[in-house]
Amino acid sequence: MTSRTSVVVGLMQDAVTGDSQHALAATITRVREAAAKGAQIICLKELFNAPYFCKALKQEYFNFAEPIPGPTTDALRAVAAELQVVLIVPIFERQAPGVYRNSAAVIDADGTLLGVYRKMHIPHDPLFEEKYYFAPGDAVTEGEGTASGFKIWKTRYATIGVLICWDQWYPEAARITALLGADILFYPTAIGWHPAEKAVWGASQVDSWRTAQRAHAIANGVFVASVNRVGFEPEPGTQGIEFFGHSFMADPYGRMIANAATEPTTLIAECDLSLIEGARRNWPFLRDRRIDAYGPILNRWIG
User: Which fold has domain 6-287?
Assistant: First the structure.
């Protein structure tokens, strides 16, 4: 990776319309537009080329899955190489017969498939029935240079870590990925409102979501980029989900340097990577960690 003091990030906040091929074609158009605006690392939303199918338990929805590498990542590898951009590509991965993951492929600016992150924390909530579809990422990854399912990639433009949606609520995930050396934590996301709850809880849900991730930026002295989908997605027998967007980019001080509302858009933000050193000198949270005292965190509960 070339040493750089800044990198331009693009966050693609959009909705899924049509089938997977239509979604891929629309995404490639938006990637080209983002690259034309200077974006060097472009992150797509969680499960970018499929509806959020986890609203219901249906075996036919496993047909949305595909391998990595596979047709979608092959197409986007060619685009990345052509445009000289890094792409973070979250898809429903068929790793093996009966083994499916919520994954993100990381493609470098020369089209190289650097690796895959597999979502570690899998939710189970009404209309978010992910445990039915996804095996969690493995805690130990063999042969890829780390002893953990949390990973980093030294891309052409920056060292990045990828975590997915429900992972964003866990400080342990952000801390480990930052300690591995990430400059930027990317969180591709599919989070939204239950329509019946929006009036009472909607605003606080968005605020909590942003606050948790800004805290990761501050506590670890890193940039945090979160990209969510938008639009209402129905599901027979339910009230569906309204995905609320509000994608954002925060710097190592937790300051919002770009943020979106609820409409489709691509956020473009320049990240001054030199801020990482300054933030960690002024707020030396990593230096003052009591690593000798943290063993109890490995317990589910300490009573």
Answer: Nitrilase/N-carbamoyl-D-aminoacid amidohydrolase (3.60.110)
